[in-house]
Amino acid sequence: MKRDIGYNTKQKENLMNYLVRNKEKHTNVQEISAYLTSEGTPLGTATIYRQLDKLVESGVVRKFVIDGKMGACYQYIENTHECREHFHLKCLKCGRLIHLNCDHLMSINEHIAKHHGFIIDPSQTVFYGVCADCSAADASDGQE
Fold it and tell me: Which CATH number fits domain 80-144: 3.40.50.720, 3.40.47.10, 3.10.180.10, 3.30.1490.190?
């Protein structure tokens, strides 16, 4: 997998730094643009999309398209194959992305392939809900 991203400008370096620092969550072009502007290195959205496309093509960033209504989300990928082999949980409250290694889900994945002829890509499969931390915070808020 090619990982040469050819960064040489301050704006591009800041884009990459933002993605690395936020690797545990999905981010979108609007969040990236706001961050770069706050850093004094604004980039136009077309340029951000173009740079993200290059990063996706080189295997440095994963692109998530949830549906046709919302814009794509992006996530930095560590230089391993680990993220391609498990499912993901996305917290709707805090935005945290949890990498889920679960034998039970993998057996469901195998069942669907064997009995239904459909191959699921775990790296593109995201379950949405509320994480344990946010659930606990909600429960403690209700007890006050």
Answer: 3.30.1490.190
The torsion defined by the Cα of 125, 68, 23 and 110, in degrees rounded to 10, comes to 10
Q: Name the strand (E) or helix (H) holding 123.
A: none
Q: For 47-70, write each residue's pLDDT tens digit.
A: 999 999 999 888 888 887 765 556
pTM value? 0.59
Region class of 6: left (phi > 0), else alpha (psi between -120 and 50), else beta:
left
For residue 106, give the amino acid letter.
M
Listed in sequence order, the DSSP H helices in 4-126 are 10-21, 29-38, 45-58, 103-116
Amino acid identity, residue 21? R
